[in-house]
From TrEMBL:
<keyword id="KW-0732">Signal</keyword>
<dbReference type="InterPro" id="IPR011697">
    <property type="entry name" value="Peptidase_C26"/>
</dbReference>
<feature type="active site" description="Proton donor">
    <location>
        <position position="265"/>
    </location>
</feature>
<dbReference type="InterPro" id="IPR015527">
    <property type="entry name" value="Pept_C26_g-glut_hydrolase"/>
</dbReference>
<dbReference type="Pfam" id="PF07722">
    <property type="entry name" value="Peptidase_C26"/>
</dbReference>
<dbReference type="GO" id="GO:0046900">
    <property type="term" value="P:tetrahydrofolylpolyglutamate metabolic process"/>
</dbReference>
<feature type="active site" description="Nucleophile">
    <location>
        <position position="153"/>
    </location>
</feature>
<feature type="signal peptide">
    <location>
        <begin position="1"/>
        <end position="32"/>
    </location>
</feature>
<comment type="similarity">
    <text>Belongs to the peptidase C26 family.</text>
</comment>
<keyword id="KW-0964">Secreted</keyword>
<dbReference type="GO" id="GO:0005576">
    <property type="term" value="C:extracellular region"/>
</dbReference>
<dbReference type="GO" id="GO:0034722">
    <property type="term" value="F:gamma-glutamyl-peptidase activity"/>
</dbReference>
<feature type="active site">
    <location>
        <position position="265"/>
    </location>
</feature>
<protein>
    <recommendedName>
        <fullName>folate gamma-glutamyl hydrolase</fullName>
        <ecNumber>3.4.19.9</ecNumber>
    </recommendedName>
</protein>
<keyword id="KW-0378">Hydrolase</keyword>
<dbReference type="GO" id="GO:0005773">
    <property type="term" value="C:vacuole"/>
</dbReference>
<dbReference type="InterPro" id="IPR029062">
    <property type="entry name" value="Class_I_gatase-like"/>
</dbReference>
Amino acid sequence: MWMGGSLTNWIAMITMKLTLLLIVAYFFHCEGAVITSSEEQPAINNRPIIGILSQEQSFYLQGKYPKENYTSYIAASYVKAIEASGARVVPILIGKNREYYRDLMSKINGVLFPGGATYFNQSNGYADAGQHIYEIAQEFNEADDYFPIFGTCLGFELLIILASGRREKENRIQCNSSLSRPLNFTNDFRDSKMFKNAPQDLVDLLAYYDITVNAHQFCIVDENLKNFNLNKDWRVTSYSNDDKGVQFIATIENKRYPFYGVQFHPEKNSFEWKQSKNYPHSSDAVRANRYFMDFFLNECRKSSHTFRNVDEENEYLIYNYEPKFTGKIGSQYEQCYFFEPRRHRHCTV
């Protein structure tokens, strides 16, 4: 039988032990919340630098700059879109060997494949450079070195063609679209990384208004994914319709790697102004389309790559090049950056 005093002492002792256990548990819980592994809480890089892949000089612009005879270009609207979301830009040149791309990618935090009008079968061009970048990015991610790619229009098509394997018959279809369209979201689009945290008001704008700018002659449809068993690796999150009613894939992401694609042009709403194109420039259109570069940049902030020092960084930045006002000479782009004039051989006697 317990005596009154002994019972009281026993209860006090148990209470003290429980209190100590709770204190210890709370301490370790708090420590765990503050000190986490890099896997649980990756470091955020708030000084990201993004590479934009250049492409072959267009026939139109080549005719406007015959003396300079540039090798490649980047529309300035892509540069501005990246900068507006909080990053700097490095141009990635075409026609280089694999080590050039590997070395540069080890210093930057992601790559944008821009839209354009080049072909994929030109030797040492946009598609060859894109393939190097795509394969190196896969290697990085397989080694737990987070490295995103974002493809817009032609760049999105290139992602899928690279995923299916380049061949003489390209894995895309002809699909003419020159109008702004809404996005028809899939039922599970909220399960995607791209749209999981998208504000509902922006989703509604994209879903109900003609604010995504389409300007393409080819597109990717469901059959292109099925033909090469790409559904297991790629998640479709929305569709749009071309000018003849053909349903094409508008947004997509890879389930394994941080690779993302959109068939439309989010950069044009803010930075391209050719009147005949009639791009939507409302505040809602600008805000909704800005979401895509904001999302991509947040993905790139998960990459810790850096240049060796500020001097090396400065050597690569787009600030070393001066954009030309191409809108006034009839280009669809307001401004363009041009790179590497072709070298002509001169005979000597």
